[in-house]
Amino acid sequence: MTSMVRTRHRLPADLPFWAALVAIELLSILAYLGFTNTDVSSYRYLVYPFLWINVALWAVFHTRPTQASPRIKAVALIVSLGYLLGLSMLSGLVELSGLQAAHSHLPSGLQVTMSAPGWGPRVFYTGSFGHLSFIPYRVIGYLALSYLLYVTVLDVAVATVSALFGVASCIACSFPLVATLLAGVTGGSTGLITSLSVYSLDISTAAFLVSVCLLYWRPSR
After folding, report:
1. Bridge partner list, 133
2. What is the pLDDT of residues 71-125, one digit of tens each?
3. Which of 21, 107, 169, 193 has a C-alpha 20 to 30 A away from that of 69?
């Protein structure tokens, strides 16, 4: 007589949190559509911001940095902050005077505008130095990518045999940078850039998801 063994698969301990988060997001979208009577050209534009936010939070909550010396941590921090600044400047979240003039027409000071959940509230500040923008899903997404890069740099610095694979996996870091340029997030007028700018959010979202996956499931894990 053969015995049968039944294996029980335990649900993740944080599943209630993510279920509640998704439920709140869905309710916020329904409330926004109900109270504003907004004409939505494509509902995927309402979903994309929460896709960024949820994937970013999940990856950060499930990633722990490797133990390393203070010197290595300092180097990893500088690299990740530089990467965050590069993403912010390419996407238009940070614009310095003399480099970009997309918001030169805006009055100086702080401005807050409401928008669809995940897209807003948007916060803008224009000063003599340039322009700063806060768009929730992009800020959260870029912070998450920078944190994952920080952890990856620590792994590469500490690892031995897998160091080469860790460096190769950092190709993921370039996806949002390249996608931002190709999609024409900061503007485009003619030719290929114009046609791609129509799908800028689709391209940047795909690049973001690929980057998070490669940086989270890197070979050194």
Report:
1. 124
2. 888 988 998 898 898 888 888 888 887 554 445 555 678 888 888 899 988 898 8
3. 169
CB 125 within 8 A of CB 131: yes
Residue from 46, 219, 65 nearest 151 by CA:
65
Cα 60 from Cα 58, distance rounded (Å): 6
User: Closest Cα to residue 212, out of 40, 56, 32, 36?
Assistant: 56
Query: Do residues 122 and 135 make contact, with C-beta atoms less than 8 angstroms apart?
Result: yes
Rounded to the nearest 10 degrees, how much is the dihedral formed by the CA atoms of 169, 183, 199, 51? 40
0.90 surpassed by pTM: no
Domain boundaries, the chain: 15-91+136-216
Task: Print the SS3 string covering the chain.
Answer: CCCCCCCCCCCCCCHHHHHHHHHHHHHHHHHHHHHHCCCCCCCHHHHHHHHHHHHHHHHHHCCCCCCCCHHHHHHHHHHHHHHHHHHHHHHCCEEECCCCCCCCCCCCEEEEECCCECCECEEEEEECCEEEEECHHHHHHHHHHHHHHHHHHHHHHHCCCCHHHHHHHHHHHHHHHHHHHHHCCCCCCCHHHHHHHCCHHHHHHHHHHHHHHHHHCCCCC
Assigned token pair, 178: 């390249």
